Amino acid sequence: MSVTARRGAMQRLFDRIMLIAAGRNALWVLALVSFTEASFFPIPPDPVLAAIVLARRERWLAAALVCTVASVVGGLFGYAIGAGLYEAIGRPVIAFYHLEEAFNTFQQRFNEWGAWIIVAKGFTPIPFKLVTIASGVVHMDLTTFTVSALLTRGARFLIVAALFWAFGPQARAIIDRHFNTVMIAGILLIVLGFVAVVYI
């Protein structure tokens, strides 16, 4: 497939996402992505959140709140998997994403940092499911886990939404002019998130 054809396919996908982001079901889609990403889905909700704010700037705060609540609820589901269903579900999920070494590292860091590990890693592009499942395995205090997840995910999504609210028109213009570069950068960021869990 030629570069032009690939760009055309990606552009159509982006246009489709923007149509969904402007629609009445956009927040439900965002909630679903945010919930599942916290327990088993590979794609972070930030691109969907950004698309919603780009499509309808007045939704920025509502979108950030929906994203936060759904992520924390999904995190509680991931915690439950780690606490009671690790062998049946948690281990296969970790193995599917090849996060075994990162999982062991998280457990070691938890012994050093405690709940601060959630605050630190909740801001990064690492897979949040790693944090939630591992927190369940080590039986972190549930209240501490919930508050930490709420603070770190809420801060992250509010920052993302606020930035796209403030710079939305400029961001859309950059995306339109440099579409391939932006898409490659987004994919690279996700990949780096998976790589970083081994070293951070």
Mean pLDDT across the residues is 76
Biggest β-sheet strands, sense, barrel: none
Note the gap between the termini. Answer: 37 Å
Count of DSSP H/I helices: 10
Overall SS class: mainly alpha
What is the radius of gyration computed over CA atoms, rounded to a whole number of angstroms? 17 Å
Spans of 5+ residues with little confidence (pLDDT < 50)?
1-7
The proportion of residues in beta strands is under 5%
How many domains? The number is 1
Helix content: over 70%
What is the string of SSEs from the N terminus onward? Answer: HHHHHHHHHH
Q: What's the β-strand tally?
A: 0
Query: What is the overall silhouette?
Result: elongated
Give a short synopsis of this structure.
Keywords: Membrane, Transmembrane, Transmembrane helix. The protein has 10 helices and no strands.
Q: In words, what does this structure look like?
A:
The structure is a single chain. This protein has 200 residues and is an all-alpha fold. It has ten helices and no strands. The chain has one domain (3-199). 83% of the residues lie in helices and 0% in strands. Helix 3 (46-55) crosses helix 9 (142-177), helix 4 crosses helix 9 (142-177) and helix 6 (100-113) crosses helix 8 (128-137). The longest helix has 36 residues, at 142-177. It is elongated and about 45 Å long. Residues 1-7 have low confidence and may be disordered.
